[in-house]
Design brief:
Length: 266
């Protein structure tokens, strides 16, 4: 069973996003360990260590995003043959089966811990527990979004993931500024990347950094889910002017120089 971590998806656009956020005056410090938090009136004083150097920051508010972990302690799961992972998540197969006549779904099976995914996992687990017609959970087509400005939307494999799985893949990335709608919105920040199987031209992944990327990615979900090829996307009419044209333009970029083609040409 393949789980696609959003941590891997972020790497594709981290540098772009970091630059955009820093242009807005946001300071970003990664891999910093917080060692102490103090109050000074309405301010918070945060002491951190980064690369063995201690620094101090002041803030009005602190947002702690500590994540979640499976609540499987002290349940005696091992006694009934349930295998647990390093984070004590229940190990299941692609049918959500954890053992003989045992199925599991949701946060207890580990990442990605999202309610939309848990709902799908729960439906599949219930179906497979009660029906002879079995359904597989396909994490390949689970969309991910990060609601930054601009947003990140991703579905399918990155090029690194595709290579690890044995695909001979090819990738193309275009600036969102190629899309007319970005000029109308006065926001051409971002890029769109498509990953394909070089031999078949099947689209394996779509990754977007742009305004409304969380909405745009759903077209990508349908493309990846239905094993569509570059030609399938290129031959699909897109409304002009829309940000969705970026998906078609990126598909076209595998076959021609999109910087010299006029609007709406296939």
């Amino acid at each position: 069973m393949l789980l696609i971590s959003i941590r891997n998806l972020c790497k594709t656009y981290f540098k772009y996003l970091k630059d955009y956020l820093q242009e807005e005056g946001i300071e970003i410090h990664t891999n910093a360990k917080i060692i102490e938090i103090e109050h000074d009136g309405n301010e918070k004083i945060i002491k951190v260590v980064h690369n063995n150097v201690e620094s101090t920051f002041k803030a009005e508010h602190i947002l702690i995003a500590a994540g979640r972990k499976p609540n499987t302690h002290n349940l005696g799961l091992e006694k009934i043959g349930i295998n647990l992972g390093k984070k004590r998540e229940i190990i299941v197969d692609e049918f959500m089966k954890a053992g003989e006549n045992i199925w599991a779904a949701g946060d207890v099976i580990g990442e990605p811990m999202l309610e939309t995914i848990a709902a799908r996992e729960g439906m599949i687990a219930t179906n497979n527990a009660l029906s002879e017609e079995k359904i597989k959970m396909d994490y390949r087509i689970v969309p991910h979004a990060i609601f930054t400005n601009p947003q990140v939307g991703s579905v399918g494999f990155t090029d690194l993931q595709a290579n690890r799985l044995g695909y001979d893949c090819r990738c193309n990335t275009i600036p969102i500024g190629f899309v007319a709608k970005s000029k109308i919105l006065n926001d051409d920040r971002g890029v769109l990347k498509i990953v394909i199987n070089r031999k078949t031209e099947e689209i394996l992944g779509i990754h977007i950094l742009s305004t409304n990327a969380a909405d745009l990615i759903h077209e990508g979900v349908m493309i990846v889910k239905n094993h569509m090829t570059l030609d399938d996307v290129i031959s699909t009419i897109h409304v002009f002017p829309t940000l969705s044209e970026a998906i078609k333009l990126t598909a076209q970029s595998f076959k021609r120089d999109i910087s010299v083609i006029s609007c709406c040409i296939e």
